[in-house]
Design brief:
alpha/beta; Aspartate Aminotransferase, domain 1; Aspartate Aminotransferase, domain 2; 7-stranded mixed beta sheet; 4-stranded mixed beta sheet; 15 strands; binds pyridoxal-5'-phosphate
């Protein structure tokens, strides 16, 4: 804290002439001049590398959130940075009015990785979901023969699919939907994990069943192993599309390319986002067979930035890294450590812990602390995580975290829980 001039250079993006701004000043300015649509932890990050970030005062933190899985490959992954630099020197954006030379390799490799024909690239996860909704409705009218305007999409309670007005229309989180009506009709919400409820909700108007194979934002909720297989059966029988929103669960997080792999279910469409951009820029996609995506003709859907050259360079690199790199294996072996060690905390301030791959949701005993409390105490000990829904926290370290660092991070969690128990006693 004494070398304020040195800190000043760090805080201001390396400009030695700029005045020093402390953590407190950064937060004060941010809260004054940005909308309060988030409630961040009081940490101002200046740099990141691998699983670690450094704040403006030089403090280091183990990043156990990894941008909600957008940073699966770690901060400034050298392979991704190299690909980004190469592409920045060539061309970044062409629009889809023309082809760019990253486009074909990107869509070909992504489709091939998950065994589908085609890719419709967009930018954010919400846009991939919006794409799926439009495609499913069009498919229902043109292929299934649902009367125009009658298509329904069955979704799961507790879902998180993004923030657009249509998507929040089928959210059950009052924070997400409250005060934003009128809402888009055409959705039926049934409890997550309940295939019977889906069966009851599906009728001749059903265009699709849209689910997260593992619910992320809800707190890493892993359904029973027969849930997705039963949804597959129902969709086959009723001729509805099964759409897997793998924006958070996909691309390595659970130890497989897609979380659907855990139950051997092949959905009709995958939605990807977050990690698909390598943590460099937003890249999302709907991936499906031609008989599904083929319902969209020129001019009927798109995005200025979707499939841009830099996005293509990142996306194809992510696909190659998943296929050739150690990431899936890391998620599995480190995930085993995460699972075993979190189990030890259950009963000691943690009510329950759910894990799949290198991904965990833990429910803190609310009599001991709120999720926010726990996050703040962990940040003081150098570990970054984020709470969701009051007393749940989610752990999703980058898949490049070392075993030693992961264990250290879990030690800090153990220490915070011990502090809380001591304080409560
Ligand atoms: C984050 C997320 C989205 C939305 O992605 P954005 O890029 O924030 O629009 C959609 N679906 C799931 C499952 C997500 O976790």
């Amino acid at each position: 804290m004494s070398d304020t001039r040195g800190l000043g250079r760090r805080e201001t993006g390396g400009d030695p002439a700029a005045p020093a701004i402390s953590t407190t000043d950064h937060i004060g300015l941010a809260e004054t001049h940005s909308a309060h649509n988030y409630n961040p932890l009081p940490v101002v990050i200046a740099e990141g590398e691998g699983a670690w970030v450094t704040d403006v005062e030089g403090r280091r933190y183990l990043d156990c959130l990894a941008g909600y899985s957008a940073i699966n490959f770690g901060h400034r992954n050298p392979e991704l940075l190299a690909a980004a630099h190469r592409q920045l020197e060539r061309v970044t954006l062409t629009s889809r009015a023309f082809y760019n030379d990253q486009f074909a390799p990107f869509v070909t490799s992504l489709a091939d990785m998950v065994g589908k024909d085609q890719v419709l690239p967009m930018n954010t996860g919400a846009e991939a979901v919006e794409t799926a909704i439009k495609v499913a409705r069009r498919w229902a009218y043109e292929v299934k023969g649902v009367p125009d305007g009658d298509a329904t999409i069955i979704v799961a309670g507790g879902n998180f699919h993004g923030r657009t007005t249509t998507i929040i229309s089928f959210s059950q989180d009052p924070d997400a939907y409250g005060g934003f009506g009128p809402y888009t009709p055409g959705f039926r919400v049934v409890p997550f994990g309940d295939a019977d409820a889906v069966e009851d909700a599906v009728d001749s108007t059903a265009a699709a069943v849209l689910v997260e194979p593992v619910q992320g934002e809800a707190g890493v909720i892993v359904p029973e192993p027969d849930y997705l297989p039963r949804l597959r059966e129902i969709c086959d029988r009723e001729r509805a599309l099964l759409i897997a929103d793998e924006v958070q669960s996909g691309l390595g997080r659970t130890g497989t390319v897609v979380a659907c792999e855990h139950t051997g279910v092949e959905p009709d469409a995958y939605l990807f986002g977050k990690a698909l951009g390598g943590g460099v820029l937003p890249v999302s996609a709907m991936v499906a067979d031609e008989e599904v995506l083929g319902v969209i003709k020129p001019g009927q859907h798109g995005s200025t930035f979707g499939g841009n050259a830099l996005a293509g360079a990142m996306g194809r690199t992510v696909v190659r890294m998943l296929r050739e790199g150690p990431y899936l294996e890391n998620a599995r072996t480190l995930g085993e450590i995460l699972r075993t060690r979190l189990k030890e905390f259950v009963g000691g301030g943690v009510l329950s812990a759910r894990t799949i791959g290198l991904w965990a949701g833990i429910d803190v005993d609310p009599s001991l602390a709120t999720g926010r409390d726990l996050c703040e105490r962990l940040a003081e000990r150098g570990v970054l995580v984020k709470d969701t829904h009051g007393s749940t926290i989610r752990l999703s370290p980058p898949l490049v975290v070392s075993e030693e660092d992961l264990n250290w991070g879990l030690d800090q969690l153990g220490a915070v829980l011990a502090d809380l128990r001591a304080g409560a006693a």
